[in-house]
Write a structure and sequence with these properties.
By secondary structure, this protein is mainly β. It is 5% helix and 60% strand. The protein has one helix spanning 104-109, and strands at 10-15, 18-25, 30-36, 41-45, 50-64, 67-72, 76-79, 85-100.
Length: 112
């Protein structure tokens, strides 16, 4: 068993000035903690990984195609493989993203 406190993972910037840390990564999934400030934007992108997560704190608009959904603390989200998506942060926010399989590009950035 492994236990890790937030702040003890491998830190990296997934997008410009968006702070995150890899909490755990195995051969099948990755936990990524992401902290974002009001006004920050994750530009539209897509990836072959399945992504699920929870908003732990704050509020942000998640956009996929014509769909715009307000995601607040306590809400979960599911982004399917290759689904184009972006995020606009409204309030200081923390998200726990789960990727399957792990994001190879993030592992490389974090030198893991």
């Amino acid at each position: 068993m492994e236990v890790l406190k937030a702040g003890g993972g491998k830190k990296l910037d997934v997008f410009e000035e968006i702070k995150s840390e890899i909490i755990f990564s195995s051969g099948r999934m990755m936990f990524l903690l992401v902290d974002m400030k009001p006004g920050q934007i994750v530009p539209e992108h897509r990836h072959p990984h399945e992504q699920m997560g929870i908003c732990l704190k704050g509020k942000a608009e998640f956009i996929s195609g014509e769909n715009k959904i307000l995601v607040e603390a306590g809400m979960f989200y599911w982004i399917k493989p290759n689904e184009p998506h972006s995020v606009k942060v409204i309030e200081e926010s923390t998200f726990l993203d789960v990727f399957s399989p792990p994001r190879e590009d993030y592992l490389e950035k974090a030198s893991l």
